[in-house]
Amino acid sequence: MFSKGVADASNFVKGVDTSFMIIFGIISFFLIGITATMIYFVFRYRKSKHPKAEQIHGNVVLEIVWTLIPTALVMVMFYFGWMGYKPMKEVPDDAFVIKSIARMWHWQFQYENGKVTDTLYVPKDRDVKLDLVALDVIHSLYIPAFRLKQDIVPGKDQFMWFKAGREGDFDLFCTEYCGLSHSSMATSVVVMDSDKFDKWYVDTTVVASIITDKPGALGLRIVQMNGCLACHSLDGSKIVGPTWKGLFGSEETVLTNGVERKVVVDSAYVMNSIYNPNDDVVKGFKKGLMLSYKNELKEEDIKEIIEFMKTLK
User: Which of 166, 79, 182, 85 is nearest to 126 (CA)?
Assistant: First the structure.
């Protein structure tokens, strides 16, 4: 029924799978039983054998039986469902806390030492708590292999926790339709050996892959981590927002408080567009789709983004 080898992926797999198999078994039994009974009745009580219908006025024993048995079965399903769900809300006091931020259409994970990633890195055999935050619309964090899913509502404090039991990469994606690029809102959970994770965690230096002489490399990394490329293409194609290809230094027509005007896309314009995206909306695009990044990006980050934009001629 489930992928082989994931039973130890997290501490919740066994409880969820047990509950599922019991409910699935009960449903399957009654589906087959009721269908078979219906087919039997079609032939046993067809009109040619019973041309005159007979009225049945009730059977107390039968009514008691079909009330008690379904009630007992529902309580069995409730019990196993509750026993699988209850531990998900009992977070250990010493759990390792990571802030998980969802926004259209990107995941970002912030660690207590200042690290920020777009992939969730966690240690094996250690309790991990995710504080869930949605910055725009309703999202839903789902890790299938861990049997975990939690809707994330803007303005509401929510969390999930788990203990990963096996090293490897596991899918993580949004299961609440959140707009045009909902299907691209996917990343991974990377479960690492505790010692390896500790070394990764304490290393707060810049990722080696972005230490390069190539212009704009750090800016590209920043926009990738913040999900900017979900709305802005680099090849000239039109998606949610204006393409960045050839954008910097160009003249654009924008709407400012409903008034159409021409502006040059320079450093000041880019910074204001990131911090106050609804001030000057490029003609042909909708207002309100982008939220401010004041709390996510520093001026130094935006300068790096601008350097990257300059390379997109």
Answer: 166
Task: Give the C-alpha separation, 187 to 183, whole Å.
Answer: 11
Domains of the chain: 13-89 (1.10.287.90), 96-202 (2.60.40.420), 211-310 (1.10.760.10)
Q: Of 65, 104, 85, which Cα lies nearest the Cα of 23?
A: 85
Q: Which residues contact 115 (CB under 8 A, 6 or more apart)?
A: 201, 204
Average pLDDT over residues 198-210: 67
Taking the C-alpha atoms of residue 144 and residue 115, their distance in angstroms, rounded to an integer, is 25
Q: Measured between alpha carbons, how far is 255 from 127 in angstroms, rounded to an integer?
A: 50
Rg of the chain over Cα atoms, rounded to whole angstroms, equals 28
Range in 53-62, 107-116, 155-164 with the lowest mean pLDDT: 53-62
Pairing of strands 127-134, 96-103: parallel
Helix, strand, or coil (residue 212): coil
In 3D space, the residue among 271, 236, 264, 270 whose CA is nearest the CA of residue 250 turns out to be 264
Between CA 189 and CA 122 the distance in angstroms is: 7
Look up residue 183 and give its DSSP letter: G
What pLDDT digit, counting tens, does each position of 114-145 carry?
Answer: 888 889 999 999 999 999 999 889 999 999 99
DSSP helix, strand, coil percent of the chain (3-state; round to 5): 35, 25, 40
As given in the structure block, the two tokens for residue 178 are 């959140």
